[in-house]
Amino acid sequence: MISTRRRLEPEVFDLPVEKMRAGWYTDAYFNHTRATLLEDARRPNVVMQVFQKRDAFLGGMDEAIAILKLCADDFSDLTVHALYDGDSIRPYETVMTIEGDYTAFAHLETAYLGTLARRTLITTNVVNVLRAANGKPVIFMAARHDHHRVQTGDGYAAYVAGQIVGAPIGVTTDEQASWWGGSGLGTVPHALIAAYGGDTVVAAKHFADWAPDDMNVTVLVDFENDSVRTALDVAHALGPRLWGVRLDTSESLVDRALWEEMGDFKPTGVNPRLVHKVRAALDREGFDAVRIVVSGGFTVEKIRDFEEDGVPVDAYGVGSSLIRGSNDFTGDLVMSDGRPAAKVGRGYRPNPRLERVT
After folding, report:
1. Is the full-model pTM beyond 0.90?
2. Cβ atoms within 10 Å, residue 175
3. Does residue 163 sit within a domain?
């Protein structure tokens, strides 16, 4: 089992503590439940058991613990056991238990379950992509596909996935990298090329002049839908300053290099034949050190197909597919005042892998 085996401090997460304590992020029925118990002066000592239903890789546990530490009535009165971010988890395996006065944390269930669901989804998706990529770098390009407030935790979930697999994972915004001390990276984008009148070479030259010496200059080469020619033009213009070219052809277009070859393969988007053509052209003119990055509609399945076919890709940029899907968590109150209290079909499932949270 591979895991980060350390926990981030609660302050890292910059939680809206007062609102969480007031139940603003809580499903109303949990707030009503807590209010009912307090009105009745009933404070049951319970065991809350948290689990999900898939083979997955745990994410969001440190954040969930932070919610409990900072927003429960008094965390010192609770006994929490939990797995670690990055742990491999099985269907129905208990990932966390919370023992104590239920009214002290009833108002937090929505928040910590939602945190675990989102982060575990991202961590699991990124692990699967990294494994499909066979150790090649993957760039987590999901920021533009979701609300900015999810960037921080999603970026850390991607980082955890990289630690699990032992493969490089890059992110595209500084916010995504903030919890682990990294920084965002990026290529010469279409917007900069457009700002220079659609001239990729001119845009690349100005970008390279601006870029710090330690930045890997990578240039998008599909702006004119002529990736082979543009890649060569950029390589000649930048020389050794060019680290890589990025292919990002739309799924609705066929690159000019393939116009005379259509008929026996799917020619649209970034496809194996286009990558081979760009690689061959660069090598033929002495630019064998220039890497090829591909993006645009890449999923686990497409990456796996590219790798199985030996397509000469050096890095993958993956966006929306990494944040799609679901990985829901459930919280069951399984013990109350020392007696079994779970609904029919559920029960207390001790897990010796859990560790006490201090």
Report:
1. yes
2. 17
3. no
